[in-house]
Records
---
Amino acid sequence: MKIQMIIRRFAGTFVLASLVLAHYQSPDWLWFTAFVGFNLLQSSFTNFCPLEIVLKKMGVGGDCGGGDKKGEVCGSK
């Protein structure tokens, strides 16, 4: 699985979870939503994503599942 897809899923999950928590627990959880949004925005300009670094160190999403031809981009034919 591509690392960008994993990052989008994490971001979407965290935004939805914080909205649910803000609704049922405390509006202060909206600060977490703002933090996720800020990270997404800054990473679009700086190409720096903390989650990407963590995932790469864990060995998650580093390749396309193996067996790809050398130089071939993930998902291309």
Note: The two ends are 16 Å apart (CA to CA).
---
Amino acid sequence: MGGLAEGFADIGAGKQANEVAKRNALIDEQDARVAMKDARFNAALEQRRGVRIQAEQAVRFGKGGVQADVGSPLLLAAQESVNASLRASGELRQGAAESRRRRESAFMQRFRGKAAKRAGFIRGGTKIIKTIAGSGTGMPSFGSRSPRTEETNVLGGISL
């Protein structure tokens, strides 16, 4: 009855591989959420940094007696605003890409787990059936030929 034990072991191994894959998928999904959360946080930091730089520029221009609402000081402030937005967008884009990569990884983990479970079931079930069939319990044995299939077709030598 070693075949039965091997068959059930294969089925168990497939189930275990599926459980491991599910756990890995959950971890990947959690990492995806963390990546997006970090990206939003970093984008907000970049926006705040841009506002702080603009405020520092206004103070410096004021101290120097420069009129900050016209000319090059105004252009510098506008440029810093654009730069801050670009840095924030970059953070969000990177976070979204990392999040998407992690979610796709989670999908593949689940897919592989289900495939391993099916393969274990098929492999184990086949071993169990072959063991039962070979033990003489009245089930036909796979691969054996009945006397009728030993007859040969006279026209072409083909086994029937």
Note: The chain has two helices and no strands.
